[in-house]
Amino acid sequence: MCIFSKDSKLHLSMPQSPPTAESYQQGCISMTLEKADLWKSFHSSGTEMIITKHGRRMFPHCSIRLSGLQPFVNYVVMMDMVPADSFKYRWKKDQWEVAGKSEPQPPCRLYMHPDSPAPASHWMKQPLSFLRMKLTNNTLDQHGHIIVHSMHRYYPRFHVTQADSPYTVRWGPFQTFSFPETTFTAVTAYQNPKITKLKIDHNPFAKGFREGGTHSHGKRCRSNRGSPDKRARLESEVRCNSPPGLQRMPSTSQSVKVGKDEQPLNLSACSLEQESLHTEPLDLQEYDYCCEEQMVPASMPYQPYRSLEYARYPLHSNEVDAAHSLLHPPHHQLSTAEHNSQQHGYYHHPQHYSQAGDWSQYPLFSYSCR
DNA sequence: TCTACTATCACATTTGAACTGA
DNA sequence: ATCAGTTCAAATGTGATAGTAG
C-alpha cells in the first residue's frame, strides 16, 4: 500500500488485517531519508561507493528518520543491499556502460542497527545513522560487512520489524523501505571525477589528503612508500590489533552518537523520477528532481521467513512469486526478459520482487563496526 | 595493452581513557 | 562518591596512486 504525501515522506503501511489479540496493528510507519540533498547531489552524478577487502564505510552514509511506530513496542531496524539490476558495468569514456550480466550474487547479509532492539520512542526521537556499516568485496569476510560485487549497482533497503530481541526478528512482519536516490555503483577505485570531488568537498576524512601529503602540483610525496621495515611494522600492528569491527563494538543498548553533520534535513525538495533507478547506464540528463512528490519505491511488506503472513495478507501475483522465490530460492538468476516482464504494475520498485528471487538467503547477521 | 584490484601513504577526525574540579 | 567537563594519545577513515594480477 503506497501513499503519496505532500511532505515528501515515504509512507508505507501494512495490508490491514483484522486486529486480534496476537497481531499488532501496524499502523502507518513513515521513513524519511536524511541528508537527501546530499544524496541527490551524488545521485545526479552517479553515486559510487568504494569497497575494499577490509570494508569501507559508505559516503554519504545512510541516515533515516522513522515515525508512526507503535508506542511502547520494541523494534529492530535492519538494512541490506539489493542489486539495482542484473548488469555489470564499466566506466568508459566518462560514463558508465553495461559490461554484461551481473555475477552471481554474493552471500546476502543484513546489518542490524546497533541500537536494536529499542522502543519506538528511541527510534523516533532522532535520526538513525548507519554510519558504521561497511561494504566489502571479500566474499570470505569474517567481520560481518555487507558483501557486494564491484562494478555492480545496489541500493540500500531498510527493514523495520517489531521484536524484543534480535533472536525473535524472524517471527515478526517486516516493513521495508528504500530510496531511489541511494542507488550506487560499487567500485574499488573511483571512476567518476565528479564523485571524487563531491566526496572531498563533503567528507571531512578526505581533508588529510587534500590539504596535506600532497605537493602543490597535486602529486603526493611517496619517498618511503612500501619500505620493508615500515611494512613489517604495519603488519605487526595488524597482527597485534584485534579487528576494528570487534575492537569497539558498542553494546546493543548503547546509543549511537550522531555526528554534527547528521542533522535532519528538509526533504521537501526531494523527489525522484522512477526512472532514476533503472537498468540503463546513468545519464545525467535523465535526472529530474523537480517533481513535487516523491515516488514511493517500495510497497510490499517484507516477510522472508514467516510463511503464515502470506496467507494473512493477500498478495499480488508478482508478490506471490517473489515470496515463493524467497522461500524456495531459484537455482538460476532471472533472464533479462524475465526480469523486465515482472516490472509492471503500480509499484515503484518492482526490483523488490524480481530481485528478491536473486537473494538466495537472508541470514540475520548483526554487526557493528567502527 | 587494458582493466580491475590491492596495499600503502599522511593527516584530519573520532573515540575513549585518564584526569581534574565541583 | 559521583558527575561533568577537559585533555590527549591512539585508532580510524579518507582519496590517490603505484604495483600487481588476470
Automatic annotation (TrEMBL):
Region (Disordered): 209-260
Gene Ontology biological process: cell fate specification; heart morphogenesis; pattern specification process; positive regulation of DNA-templated transcription
Source taxon at top rank: Eukaryota
Molecular functions (GO terms): DNA-binding transcription factor activity, RNA polymerase II-specific; RNA polymerase II cis-regulatory region sequence-specific DNA binding
Main localization of the protein described in the UniProt heading: nucleus
Localisation: Nucleus
Basic and acidic residues bias (residue ranges): 227-238
SUPFAM superfamilies the UniProt entry points to: p53-like transcription factors
Xref: Gene3D superfamilies: Transcription factor, T-box
Record's GO cellular component terms: chromatin; nucleus
Name this polypeptide is given: T-box domain-containing protein
Species annotation: Eleginops maclovinus
